[in-house]
Design brief:
By secondary structure, this protein is of the alpha+beta class. The chain has one domain: Aminopeptidase (3-Layer(aba) Sandwich), CATH 3.40.630.30. 36% of the residues lie in helices and 28% in strands. This is N-acetyltransferase domain-containing protein. InterPro entries: Acyl_CoA_acyltransferase (IPR016181), GNAT_dom (IPR000182), N-term/lysine_N-AcTrnsfr (IPR051556). It comes from Aegilops tauschii subsp. strangulata (Goatgrass).
Length: 72
């Protein structure tokens, strides 16, 4: 997971992508901690995002990368 995420960050920097986001189920504490370790922040909660799992809610985790991150 770490290698893949670092690869994504490298690709985003090369393509001048300044923000990436992902969805994580609200009860997935391990995934939330993993992404926070890489600088992601919870920026939104979407209720009833999932239709076949419980809980159905998700967090949107966002990371600002490249130049946008240095301007924060």
């Amino acid at each position: 997971g770490t290698k893949l995420l670092n690869h994504v960050f490298d690709l985003c920097a090369k393509q001048n992508i300044s923000e990436i986001y992902l969805h994580v189920q609200t009860n997935n504490d391990d995934a939330i901690a993993f992404y926070k370790k890489f600088g992601f922040e919870i920026t939104e909660t979407i209720h009833n995002y999932y239709t076949n799992i419980t809980p159905p809610d998700c967090y949107v985790l966002t990371k600002f990368i490249g130049q946008a991150a240095t301007k924060k």
